[in-house]
Amino acid sequence: MMIKKIDKNQFKELFDKLKENYNIAAPVLIDKNKKTLVEYHYIDDFDKIDWDEQADSSPKNIIFPQNAPVGNDYKEKQYYDTEQDTLILGVRSCDIEAIKTLDQVFIEDEMYIDKNYKARRDKITLVGLSCPQRNKSCFCDTLGFNPVESNYAPLYIFKDGNEFWIKVKDKKFESVFENLPDGNQDKLEELIEKRINTFTESSFELDIPIPLPEKEMFEADIWEEMSEKCLGCGICTYYCPTCYCFNFIWEGKDGESTKYKNWDSCMFSTYSAHASGHNPRDSKEKRYRNRIMHKFSYHPLNYEGLGCVGCGRCIDRCPVNLDIREALKLTEKYLEEKGGAKSGKD
Amino acid sequence: MKKYEKITEEIVEIAEKLLKENTVEKVIGFGIGIFTEEVTPIFISNPENADRLVFNSKAEMSLAKYLLNYKDQKVAIVAKPCDSRAIATYLAEDLIKRENIKVIGINGCPGIENNTACEECDIRNAVISDYTVGKKMTEEEIEAKLKDKEDKIEKMTPAERMEYFQKEFERCTRCYACREACYVCYCEQCFTEGNQPEWVGDSVKLNDNFTYHLMRAMHMAGRCVNCGACEMACPEGIDVRALAAKMCRSAEELFDYRAGIDSDQKTLLSDYDVNDTESGFME
C-alpha cells in the first residue's frame, strides 16, 4: 500500500493528468430550477467538486443507469459500453458498500452474471472519500459500517482541510501516484482515529437480528402502521444506492426494437402485477414490507451483508419524510415483544 | 413565528377533544419525526398523543388524499386552505362522505416555505371546516399578500417555452412522486400503468416524459387547486406545477370555474350549459 499526501494544487494537477486517460465523475452542485442538488456528474474541472456534502443521489446512476439498452430485436446482441475507463471520485463508505451489494447481485452471483453490468463495472474505478461528518439522516455506523474507511475501493482519499491523503491500495495504480510526496502512515492513522471518534454519538441505536426472520416478520401486524403515510412513489427506491430491481422492456418502432434493462420499483403497484390481473403485493403495506424485508432479510439470506447501507437518502428525499429508522425501530419493538426472535439463518 | 404556534395549540386542543369524546377514531395531521426535525404526516388515535400534532412552515404535504384510505371511518383532518379545497372537491366528486369527516380548517394560513403556490394563493382561509384554527383573513389582507409577480412562462414565445419545458422534463425520472402527492391523482389505474395501449413508454426519454406530464396536466383541468404539492414532492426540482396551474387559470378564464370552492358545486367536466357556445374549446 502506498500513502501520498498532497495539497489542493497538486491534486488539481493530478486531476488534469488523470483526465487524459479517464472519464472522471464526482459530486458536483447542480442547479435544478426549483432545487439545488449535489449529484455525481462527469466533470472536467477539479474546482467544481463538492467535497463536503453527501450527494443527493448515489453513483448507482453511473454504474447501473436507469435505462440501459441490452439487446436488439430479440437477438443476443449486447450493448457493452465501450467508453474509456472511468474514475468515480469522492465516493463515501455508504455508496462504496452499496456498490458492493450491486456487484454481489450482478457479478459475483454465479447463477447469473450480468454481462452489461460487468462490462461497465470493469471500466469503473472507485475513489473513496472518508466521510467528514454525519449527515442529517444517515446511520451507516449504526448498521456496522465504517464511515471513515472502506476496503472495497482501490483508492481512498482522506481530506483534511486543504490537504488530501491518498491511500493507494491497488498496485495497478501505483505508477500514477509514484512521483507525489509520501504521507506518514502513523499520522494518517491518527487522523483516521480522530475522525472515527467524531462518529460516536447517534440518536439511532438498533438491535435486530440479521437476517430478519422471514416468516415471522412477513406475518407481523406492523406493516400497515409503518406504511400509513407512504404515498407509493418511487423516490426511496430510485435514490437508494442499493435498490437494483429492474424490468426488461422492448421499445421501438417501424419493425425495430431495442431491449432495455430499466429500473423498477417495488413501491409501484405494477411492480408485481401478474398478467392474469392477480397482484401478490396489491397494497402499499405489502409493498413497503417487501422493501424492508429485501434489505434486512432476503438480501442477507442470499448474499453476505445487508441490503441497506444507511445512507439516509430515502429519508431525506421522501416527500412525506417517511423514516426507515422509525420502521426499523418498530420492527425491533415487535420482535422484542415476541420474546426476542432468532435471525432468519438459525 | 407566533402564527404557527398559535395554530398548533388550537389544533392540539381540538384534536384532543375529538378523540376523547370519540367523535372521530383518528386525526390526520402534521407531526415531527422521531429522529429528525422534519414535518411528516401523522395519524393520531390516542388523545394522549394529540400533542404530537404541529403546524409550521414546513407542513408542505397535502393531507387530503389520505381521506381516501379511511372512507368508512370517522376521521378528523387538519386542512390548510388548499387542502380544504381538495376536500371540497372530493365531496363534490362524491368520493367521501361529509358525515364521516371533521375538518380542522386553517384560517389565515401563513404559508409554506419554498412553496411558490402560496405566493399566488388568494384563498388563505379554509373553504370548508367543522372547526377553525387561526385568524380569518379579510379580503383586503389577502389582496395585500398577493405578490404582483409576472408569469415568466406566459411571457415566453412558444419556442422559448418548448425549450424551458424540455430542460425541465429532461430531468424527470418518472418516480411519479408528483402524481402520488397530488390529491387529484386517485385513479385506480393511471394511464402510465396500462400497456394496451401503451400511452407512455417505460424508459425515461424526453418524449415519454412530455407525454406523461402533458397527459397528467390535461386531467388537472377544473380539478387542480394549485396547492403546489406536486412541486414540493419532485426530487428533481422540476417546475411540475406550471402546467397544472395553467389548467387552473384556463378553467377560470374560459368557464369562470374554480375547483374546490364549494362542496356542492358541480365538477367542471361533468356539467354543461345548453347555452354554451363552446367558443373556449374551439378557439
Keywords:
heterodimer; A: 346 residues; alpha/beta; 2 domains; seven-stranded mixed β-sheet; three-stranded antiparallel β-sheet; 12 helices; 10 strands; 32% helix; B: 283 residues; five-stranded mixed β-sheet; 10 helices; 5 strands; 34% helix
Helix tally of chain A equals 12
Percent helix among the residues of chain A? 25-40%
Estimate the mean pLDDT confidence of chain B.
92
Determine the N-to-C terminus distance of chain B. Answer: 48 Å
Query: Based on helices, strands and strand pairing, what is the structural class of chain B?
Result: alpha/beta
The major β-sheet of chain B equals: 5 strands, mixed
Order of helices and strands of chain A: EHEEHEEHHEEEHHHHHEEHHH
- The proportion of residues in beta strands of chain A is 15-25%
Q: How far apart are the termini of chain A?
A: 39 Å
- Strand adjacency order, main sheet of chain B: 2-1-3-4-5
Explain what the structure shows.
The complex is a heterodimer of chains A (346) and B (283). Helix content of chain A is 32%, strand content 21%. Chain A has 346 residues and is of the alpha/beta class. In chain A, strands 1-8-7-6-5-2-3 form a 7-stranded mixed beta sheet, with helices on both faces. In chain A, strand 2 (23-32) and strand 3 form a beta hairpin. Chain B has 2 domains: 2-145, no CATH class; 158-275, no CATH class. With 283 residues, chain B is of the alpha/beta class. Chain B is built from 10 helices and 5 strands. The longest helix of chain B is centred in the first third of the chain and has 19 residues, at 2-20. Chain B is globular. At the A-B interface, strand 3, strand 9 and helix 12 of A face strand 2, helix 6 and helix 8 of B.
